[in-house]
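Exam review. A common question shows you a sequence with its structure tokens and asks you to describe the fold in words. Practice with the pair below. Do the first one on your own.
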Amino acid sequence: MNSDLINAHREFLKDSLRLKTNFYLSDQHQGLPAPPLQKPVKAEQKTIPLPGKDSWGQFRGTDLVDAIAGRKSERRFLPEPITLEELSYLLWATQGVKEELGPGTALRTVPSAGCRHPFETYLLINRINGLDSGIYRYLPLEHALVLERLEDNLADKLIQATLGQRFIASAPVVVVWAAIPYRSEWRYLESAHRVILLDAGHICQNLYLACQAIGCGTCAIAAYNQNGMDQLLGVDGKDEFTVYLAPVGKV
């Protein structure tokens, strides 16, 4: 281990955690409008409405103590698909909108620093009842999906982008969270980069617990090829980039 390199990274991290005080004003303080809550849908893109809360009755009654006690990372998944109702519930539990407060601001099912919610949720779908295999994006305001594109050999491309972790591609769906940093930078400038990472943890823990209600398991993944995952999602790697992913399947 290169101790000098490790120490340099630790100093960089500590410096980034210190409260910054300078003469720069954030875009919020300069009166610029807040960035939108979600990326727009192109005119030619197909949207798919998701089942609403009235279809989640079967998932109610899960004991929180049992869910926390039973939570663990799962790397083996059964071959059966996930239903659209189950996917709908997982997406609402991780990024669902409870109330819009104003332009670019909403209360969701997970906490976020300054209510900024910098993540877009992508879905690499293999086996979801009623959906073709491909890459989708969650639209939290409409509680719907948008088809980004159908993808040939999606499993092989996913294995390559995740450094050969074959179990990830065996899952019916892989949830990928990509950050749009400006949503948080608009308020927090460079301090945004710390809280963005904290927000990712909030989201993924909700996924772990929600999986307990539907007989599924997941495994949080931070080992991937950055360029490979960004290219697979179709994001630019600068203004939007992959941060975290989690395969989900029946266990």
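Now try the second one, then compare your answer with the model answer below.
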Amino acid sequence: MTDVHALLEDYIAAHRGGRQADPREWLGRVQGRDRAALEGLIDTYLARAPMRRWDPVAFRESGLGPFAEQVTTALHGRSGAWPALLPQLRDRAALRRAELIERLAGALEAPDRQDKVGFYYHEMEQGLLPSEGVDDKVLTALGSILGQSAEALRQAGRSLLPGAGEAAGGPAAVFARQASPDPAYGDVPSPGTVAREPTPADASAEPDEIDRLFRGG
């Protein structure tokens, strides 16, 4: 019969040694009462074990920095999960942002308005565009490019936290404006500056169809 305490000691040594100590690996070695006992012992150890020291170098090298930034933007922005989801879908489709914008403008029958379409798409990825105002036509076109349904994109665009992004000029919006803009989009403010409101055309101009598709009204 397997010695539960010996397995626990082996797990603790692996965990403290910095290895990727997945409890399932150790639990898979026992069954029945021994498994239940080992699971309880590991849970107790993890509840009391000191947290590992934060290693900023290891975090940068892990490649998780941009994703963590996208998730933070999604949580506090006005576009739900779009800041985290849309870049992932673009990567999966092997599309640069400029390529996606070109195709999206074409699908919206506005190939001559790529700059404006690009502006609004940038705001979707930065959590600055209220998702409620984005027309189903946009989501259908975008979904066809990224391999998602319009309904799935609509659901993802709903706010993740109550009251998130209500104040367009609040700290969350400023964070989103400064969050590692993609150089493929030309009209992006440099860090430390405040992005203009989403009016890519002359402020005196009447809203056109692209404005209505992305902002409603």
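Model answer, second protein: Residues 61-215 form one domain. Residues 161-199 have pLDDT under 50 and may be disordered. Full marks require stating both points clearly.
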